[in-house]
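Inputs:
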Amino acid sequence: SSARSSHIKIRPPLHQYIRHLLYVELGNKGSTNKILKQLRKLNWKDPEVASYAIRCLTSAWKVKFPNIRTLAGVVAELTLYQEFVGHRIVDAVLEDIRWSLEFPISKFNQRRVSMAKYLAELYNYRMVESSVVFKVLYTCITFAVSYDRNVESELDQPDNLMRLRLVLTILDTCGVFFSSGLAKKRLDCYLVYLQYYHLFKRSLPVWTEDNPFPVAIDFGIKDMLLSLRPKLKPYKTLQEAADAVENLEKELMNKLSQAMPELRMDMVTA
Amino acid sequence: KDRTKSKEKPPSKVIIRRLPPTMTEEVFLEQISPLPDNDFFYFVKGEQQFGVPTFSRAYINFLNLEEIFTFQDKFDGYVFLDQKGTEYPAVVEFAPYQRIPLRHEPGAKEDK
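Outputs:
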């Protein structure tokens, strides 16, 4: 039994209390204000207390999925009193998402999805700008991704669809707010690249009649497009998406060369 | 509604990632000494969990933007060692989230 007991973590009472507030009480009816009050009472000047509390407030995969929104709300409110807390949580969430792309181990799948959801909820509570969300969205479809069907990426293997799940989680949570101004334009561009990524993955030889591409992902993309851009005609083929990407990039290059005439086009495209 | 701020400042907040999980702030500061001129710095110790570590990391908001490139030249890919001699090549890049608190001291705004 000594071997067993060595696995039981003994936590200081304050740590236990913070965990209780966030992982047990959060989501109970009427608990949010109480939790916030208790969190405000912590001694945030004590680096040990602060770093433990921030770590707990970052670990969105430890709360029930529907409570992730509540957690983001608590963080947004707490940040009004302890500004550095919100910033550190955002830094930590972004690092966790990046780390999880560097270690695409399936046992972290729930953690990945929870953190993607958390980032999107933090955006909804105005803790991050849309540009930060788009950085993550682009990272999902570019970081260590191979768009060459003869080269297999170790970090984004052909049959691994986690990146698409993360993107759908984010867009289903906050995409509705990318509806005007710069954020709208950013989403319009992104959806071109996303459709290319989706159709490229779908076209890989790993998918066969016996092992078909999951319809849940196809429907997820279709529903997301229909809800965020009802007038958009989704690309039907990989070639169609590839042409759209090429046209978009030509357009961007033209704009770039107009803004910076000293930039020679042959240099840019080389 | 688009909430992107129109004031676009050049990035100045840098993250040093993938440091040894067991590294302490003291050891980090010693190894990169001198710490570049900055108005914001913090260090987060990693965690050894589920057999896959999360790494230590540090954030620096540079006051002199030119210094970022010499710092990156020196420390991007620089191999840090833990006590057991395991190698951890660091990654130095702009932090994806560039905001820093207006008041940098934790608890600077009194919560009464």
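Remarks. Chain B touches chain A at residues 1-5, 15, 17, 42, 44-45, 50, 52, 54-55, 57, 59, 95-97, 99-104, 106-109, 111 (CB under 8 Å). The radius of gyration of chain B is 16 Å.
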